[in-house]
Write a structure and sequence with these properties.
The chain is an all-alpha fold and about 475 residues long. Among the domains are: about 180 residues, Cyclin A, domain 1 (Orthogonal Bundle); about 80 residues, Cyclin A, domain 1 (Orthogonal Bundle), CATH 1.10.472. The protein contains 16 helices and no strands. It is extended, with a radius of gyration of 31 Å. The two termini are about 45 Å apart. The N terminus is likely disordered. GO terms for molecular function: cyclin-dependent protein serine/threonine kinase regulator activity. This is Related to Cyclin H. Pfam families: Cyclin_C_2, Cyclin_N. Belongs to the cyclin family.
Length: about 475
């Protein structure tokens, strides 16, 4: 195996190991770094881990910059609206703050669960739809798209993404409730059709969601594999499972899935639901013991294979030198190999002490601190309500007040009753008419394709050059 030589007899510096909680796994034939130990997360290979995982500070910055950019853009549009409507004075527009948008989104995230359960859909669809809504509003603002419309579109998309596809007409009818008002049903259907592609674009067409509910299910099964003196009784496990599922539902109303891995969220929910931390501590200790044994055995196997390959390569080099250059060449090759063996080489393995101390790739203190942070997020949401100022009727009233302001600052370009909306529609129709006139005045004036409607933003892919 190739290795980088170092000058003289300088010792190779010790290797620093970063947390293994999120790691992109690679298997190069000649590694430049030691192979990582600890559990290799398949989650780390997903688009969710690559594109939808942020630090807390990065989330705050993204939302702040998006809100500021939206306010500036809407201020210009509202100025155009007032100028076009010959308004004597431009009234002050009550734009929403980042906290206002988050409170409104959280209120409608609760509605996701209510609608999904009313439709008899599984928790899987609820989790995916909730994730879709939160991802959408990382790239868009409530001042452009009301959460009510986004929620129903995301539920419809999630039902297809999770193989519980719904008929759009039936979906729109159920949303209308008992009234069966044809106008309401058609409005629901039209809303989903108009927003479905836009939402997909905002999701970057990444529909696969790795939810913590899967990790929680596996964790509850794994807890039963603990030794008899550590495994919980069946009745106790049922209570812990119910409480953990409740905390998991609350976690969907937080930013936990943007910051932490699904397995960490699931473990935090069990830790918060259990009477004490002993159950989770026993499970972690069992995982540590197994990971330590596996990591040390794997290192020993790799080392033995590397030594065998090195010895085989050395014999082949000496044999080749003897065939081509005789005994003198063989002696020279032996001297070269001896000198190379005496030179410090790059270490391709971590020390046994490192593996013994942190076989999971992160220390117990680091893991405990992460679980405590997740439980703090869940507890804050449970006690703080939608707006973070406490639960109850006053909290709902605050959300209703935010909803009223949202309607007052809504983008005029998306309101059919506004002057700007009508102006944009007229401009689009004029442009389409001019384009059609230009086509009909050309060489293909008699073509039957002139009256074929063209979809918005549609472009024909050019023929490949031969």
């Amino acid at each position: 195996m190739a290795a980088n030589d170092t000058a003289g007899s300088e010792a190779v510096p010790a290797l620093a190991y970063a947390s293994a909680s999120m790691r992109h796994v690679e298997l190069p034939s000649t590694p430049s770094l030691p192979l990582p130990f600890g559990p290799s997360l398949s989650y780390a290979q997903t688009s969710q881990a690559r594109n939808w995982r942020f630090s807390t500070s990065a989330l705050a910055r993204i939302r702040s910059e998006a809100n500021l950019a939206a306010r500036r853009r809407l201020e210009a549009i509202w100025s155009e609206e007032h100028a076009a409507s010959s308004s004597s004075s431009a009234p002050s527009i009550p734009f929403l703050s980042v906290d206002d948008e988050l409170a409104l989104i959280t209120y409608y995230l609760v509605k996701v669960g209510q609608i999904v359960r009313a439709f008899g859909l599984p928790e899987l669809v609820e989790a995916t739809a909730t994730t879709f809504v939160k991802r959408f509003y990382l790239r868009n603002t409530c001042m452009d798209f009301h959460p009510k419309n986004i929620v129903i579109t995301c539920i419809f998309l999630a039902s297809k993404a999770e193989n519980y596809a719904l008929n759009l007409g039936e979906f729109a009818r159920k949303l209308a409730g008992k009234s069966n008002d044809r106008a309401v049903i058609e409005e629901n259907r039209r809303t989903v059709l108009d927003l479905e592609f836009l939402v997909s674009q905002s999701l970057q067409f990444e529909y696969a969601v790795t939810g913590a509910h899967r990790a929680l299910y596996g964790l509850l099964l794994d807890l039963q594999s603990l030794p008899d003196n550590q495994a919980p009784a069946r009745e106790e496990l049922h209570k812990i499972a119910a409480a953990a599922h409740a905390r998991l539902s609350t976690s969907r109303l937080t930013d936990a899935e943007f910051v932490y891995t699904p397995s960490q969220i699931a473990l935090a929910c069990v830790r918060g639901a259990a009477p004490d931390t002993k159950l989770v501590d026993n499970w972690i200790n069992a995982k540590q013991s197994r990971a330590r044994t596996v990591a040390l055995a794997a290192k020993a196997s790799r080392t033995a294979l590397r030594d065998a390959e090195t010895a085989r390569a050395a014999k082949a080099k000496i044999a080749h030198a003897r065939r081509t250059k005789g005994k003198a060449g063989a002696k020279a090759a032996e001297d070269q190999l001896a000198a190379a063996a005496a030179t410090p080489q790059q270490n391709f393995e971590f020390d046994d002490a490192q593996i013994e101390a942190d076989p999971l790739g992160m220390s117990i203190d680091e893991l405990t601190r992460t679980l405590d942070e997740i439980n703090a997020l869940i507890d804050t949401r449970e006690t703080g309500g939608y707006t973070g100022h406490g639960k109850g009727a006053e909290d709902v009233d605050r959300v209703k007040e935010i909803d009223k302001r949202q309607k007052l600052c809504m983008n005029p370009e998306k309101n059919p009753a506004s002057t700007v909306y009508r102006k944009r529609q007229a401009d689009a129709e004029d442009a389409q008419a001019a384009s059609k006139k230009q086509r009909t005045s050309g060489a293909n004036a008699d073509s039957d394709d002139d009256d074929v409607p063209v979809a918005k933003d549609f472009a024909v892919k050019p023929e490949p050059a031969v």
